[in-house]
Amino acid sequence: MGLWTKxxxxxxxxxxxxxxxQDAQNALKNLFAETIQEMLEAEMDxxxxxxxxxxxxxxxxxxx
Length: 64
Prior knowledge:
This is Transposase and inactivated derivative. This protein has 64 residues and is an all-alpha fold.
């Protein structure tokens, strides 16, 4: 069994309007990019601590 059930795969196909292989490739590329981004952010939070991340967000909020 894979990571997703058939129902989940069908829902993913429908939600992303996948018709051709290129559609699927693009959707999976985006999913992969989002997954890697979340993993990197989690690693940074673990490595640097939440305090530095929160400080950076506060600094960014000061600028329009």
